[in-house]
Amino acid sequence: RLEQNVRESGQSSLLEGLARLDSALKGVGGEVQELRASFEHEHGAMQEEVRHICDDREELKQAGAMMQEQHEALSGRFDEFVVSVVENSSARRRQQDAEEAGT
Q: Which of 39, 46, 57, 86 makes a 20 to 30 Å CA pair with 21?
């Protein structure tokens, strides 16, 4: 009888311990799920930020290329303007020289 009581008591303690362990594991599993969900959310947010940065970078590259084209176009137009001014000045000087030589 004593042996049976010890066995039953041990089994009862073992079952209680297993129940506590099961409960603790379920709690840990829930925490792991929460951590995983939080990580996935943060990871998704970081990926979105990286996409925005890449989009911004591409827009900046395009804007830089457009500014370079405009700079080159304006530079060419400025060169044409300078040549025109020099040619006009030379033509006026030749005309003045011709007028002075004629008078």
A: 39
Half-sphere exposure at residue 40, Cβ-oriented, CA atoms within 13 angstroms: 6
Q: Against a cut of 0.85, is the pTM above it?
A: no
pLDDT band at 60 (very low <50, low <70, confident <90, very high): very high
Tokens 């137009």 found at: 77
DSSP SS3 for 10: helix
Buried b (16+ CB within 10 A) or exposed e, 22-41: eeeeeeeeeeeeeeeeeeee
